[in-house]
């Protein structure tokens, strides 16, 4: 499965320079790519002059517009306009998914009522429940379990150990990384009499008395619905809704160890970075970006195009388009000012005490 | 497995109104439930007048005391006093656990010395170790592993991919969601000479010199003991103790991606929300509620009935009954005031600088 | 598999006192160890006088230098200089790993091209891919999957449900706890035109306009390289690099639920505590200790010997040797002062308003 430099350029809609017939066997950093040899090369990613300084003479390289392949002594080059975008095209062409299982492994336990469309692959020890439907060309890894009645779209890639519970629906080209859990029960409990948390929410922090109560479970009858082109990271957890579905819109990408509570609705084309947590019943707009470790309280709304820096804790609704940071979340520029002022606060407090004394002396003089 | 509206009302200890013979096939939001048809209905959850506005005429609904089923045009209704509590009863009655495996799947690897009590079910590819005991009616999902000598109580529900290590003891009605890990080794290391962390703890942040040292492992010989009615979320991790057991009291519910360190002792009827982390050897009282992403340092004590808002970092002991927020944790009302003051701090700092100048001028006049 | 008290003392390079022939069957807290009986005992961990107060007469105990075994009424004792260090030796000697699988279980699916060196054990339902190499005496648990071409060093211990993707390289004595994922794809996306996040980074929080764009995936062609003596906790996730490898240096220990992004490079002998997250392409020096829940932004550098308290969010480079705390991270002593000043800020703000009035009155008098 190799591709020539010319094919690479054409597939990436980029300009070719030099030996288009070079067979590209992989990609490498400039210092490690070496020169092309025997008509083969690893393509060096040298999209800035600083990176290009490490290129070996005779290398094949991906370079940016404005760089001179002849001056760099290259054997061949693909010349791109937006380097980061070019990375998407290049890496897609060179990715072989680590040689994942083809066909249906004989050890898999597949319910007779399950429907696997054309070209679907199932790895060793996978368990596919009753009435499950797996789309064409979908690949299900080893040790995956998919519960009763779930529907997985075409060309899905479900990695090893993923748990998809019953009644989950996913669109086309779903990617789920290893050991993620989709459709676990929501965390929803109630006490016979109002609990301390309910009292605090109603009474602004005041509690009348504290009684011993046990938690009764609110079972999760809802499901999870994922759009098209959703990607879900390793060890992510997405709970099913109580009555309706927890939903993730098309094009949304979810990083490792993100937790999404029951009834949450997430819009389209969002990015949720590592270890984000979204509590039950909150709603996230379209194109929202939440940096690593952001937290979102339950039952709130985060508007379209909101961007939150890493570690932001969102306790209340956020209007569309806002850029936020901190705990509790505030506008990023406000937070930066607050942080500066806080760093100076110990000194200011000392100066303030001095000023109080000075003013007291002035008053005594008066 | 359907139930009539009358049976539902009776099971929930609630009032029935209208056609008790309607067969209830599920639950739905008011806008989606539709009217009863052919003697069947999905019951609409319409426990506030606002929700009830979306009801179709002829629907079956769960409504709150004080609402008028005739005026809402219902075919039948169950009328409840505390709606959130009613959700527990209703959803329990309608939950079928997604059609989980009955009986013992032939692919499971069960040590001959393991004891499965009456009605216990074991899913495909489960691995049950030597001397394990599984209680009556317990259900063990696909791909679960249970290590040597562990004891799981009656009516447990252990979801797919859960890892229960050796020597773990759990009471009745344990629920563990997919891919959780119970009984992993504690994170406990020591250097031959005192480490930087030990120096800082002893010397308040001062370090004499920094030496290169390797970490030696303190192995975990202890176990994990879980009470009755414990629920553990997806991808949770609970480490075993070093010598004694890490313990979780009866009735405590643990949400997804919570991390509980070695030797931790958690009381009864606690709620630990998503992504909470509790470091080694800390003790949590009874009925403690920790919101999402709360962190608890090692070797501290959180008293009974403490409630912590989401994202609270607890570095020191917390007295019983306190409601806390922030990082470091402070009383919730104090934290709210601190947050307000901090937001105004940049402006106050500017005003303070002005005031300093003014006072300087006043002094010069003097 | 028992050991005598004398053998224990010798193995731990510690002093023996009393009956060296006692057979030690395990370890226990002083109150639970009881007296030796029939030549057998559980060794009590009584390394401070306070703990020793709970010892039964006739017990076998681990005590610290300076304590008197005769006065404590012991049958036998091992006397150690640095008790915490002694715990490493003692627990290692008494750990039997919960009776893990020996040999190769017949249900495992092992590619014919995989090489298992002498004494390697493989548990039930494990899946070992093409060209995998497993070192001598390594133990692979049930339900583990190891992808094509990965190399695991000698004496590794890979617990149940661990996912090691293709092309991962690990040194000797690797320990990985249950359900961890090593080598998942990085979280790396690009939009056709610059995205909101790129605009903010370039323009300090200002966004010109917001356009609808879809995320294109940058595939991960790189790998993961782990040194010797690395330990990785339960449900950890470590992403593979984009082109080069994500690396973890020898002797580094990683606690449960830690997330390590693509291209991250971690030095030697670090401790990363529970729920730490490190974003893509950041570099962590040697002997760095990150407390629970610390976050590290992408593309930054944390110097050698840095120690960060729990919950620290690191947004910018940190010089070597610094001890930090807070969000954003500041020197620990500065953070402690800031926290104190912030607690007093609401009162100071009220006093400041008073002082403003006072000065205004003084000026009016003038």
From TrEMBL, chains A, B, C:
One Pfam family per UniProt: Hexapep_2
One GO term (biological process): lipid A biosynthetic process
Residue positions of the active site: 262
Reactions catalysed: a UDP-3-O-[(3R)-3-hydroxyacyl]-alpha-D-glucosamine + a (3R)-hydroxyacyl-[ACP] = a UDP-2-N,3-O-bis[(3R)-3-hydroxyacyl]-alpha-D-glucosamine + holo-[ACP] + H(+)
UniProt keyword Acyltransferase, yes or no: yes
Entry's EC annotation: 2.3.1.191
GO MF annotation terms: N-acyltransferase activity; UDP-3-O-[(3R)-3-hydroxyacyl]-glucosamine N-acyltransferase activity
InterPro entries per record: Hexapep (IPR001451), Hexapep_transf_CS (IPR018357), LpxD (IPR007691), Trimer_LpxA-like_sf (IPR011004)
Job description of the protein: Catalyzes the N-acylation of UDP-3-O-acylglucosamine using 3-hydroxyacyl-ACP as the acyl donor. Is involved in the biosynthesis of lipid A, a phosphorylated glycolipid that anchors the lipopolysaccharide to the outer membrane of the cell.
Protein name (Swiss-Prot/TrEMBL): UDP-3-O-acylglucosamine N-acyltransferase
């Amino acid at each position: 499965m190799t591709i020539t430099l010319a094919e690479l350029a054409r597939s990436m809609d980029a300009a070719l320079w030099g030996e288009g017939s070079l067979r590209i066997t992989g990609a490498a950093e400039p210092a490690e790519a070496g020169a092309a040899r025997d008509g083969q090369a690893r393509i060096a990613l040298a999209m800035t002059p600083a990176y290009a300084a490490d290129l070996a003479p005779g290398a094949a390289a991906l370079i940016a517009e404005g760089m001179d392949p002849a001056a760099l002594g290259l054997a061949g080059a693909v010349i791109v306009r937006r380097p980061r975008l070019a990375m998407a095209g290049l890496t897609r062409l060179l990715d072989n998914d680590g040689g994942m299982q083809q066909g249906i492994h004989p050890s898999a336990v597949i319910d007779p009522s399950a429907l696997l469309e054309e070209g679907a692959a199932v790895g060793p020890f996978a368990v596919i429940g009753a009435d499950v439907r797996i789309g064409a060309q979908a690949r299900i890894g080893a040790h995956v379990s998919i519960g009763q009645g779930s529907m997985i779209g075409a060309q899905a890639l479900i990695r090893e150990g993923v748990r998809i519970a019953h009644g989950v629906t996913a669109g086309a080209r779903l990617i789920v990384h290893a050991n993620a859990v989709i459709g676990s029960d929501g965390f929803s409990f109630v006490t016979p009499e109002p609990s301390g948390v309910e009292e605090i929410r109603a009474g602004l922090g005041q509690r009348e008395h504290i009684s011993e109560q046990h938690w009764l479970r609110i079972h999760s009858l809802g499901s999870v619905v994922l759009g098209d082109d959703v990607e879900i990271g390793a060890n992510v957890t997405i709970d099913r809704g109580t009555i309706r579905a927890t939903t993730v819109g098309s094009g949304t990408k979810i990083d490792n160890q993100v937790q999404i509570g029951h009834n949450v609705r997430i819009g389209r084309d969002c990015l949720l970075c590592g270890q984000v947590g979204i509590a039950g019943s909150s709603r996230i707009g379209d194109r929202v970006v939440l940096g690593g470790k952001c937290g979102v309280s339950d039952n709130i709304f985060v508007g379209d195009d909101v961007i939150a820096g890493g570690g932001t804790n969102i306790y209340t609704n956020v209007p569309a388009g806002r850029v936020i940071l901190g705990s509790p979340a505030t506008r990023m520029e406000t937070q930066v000012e607050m942080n500066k002022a806080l760093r100076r606060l110990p000194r200011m407090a000392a100066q303030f005490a001095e000023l109080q004394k000075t003013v007291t002396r002035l008053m005594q003089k008066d």
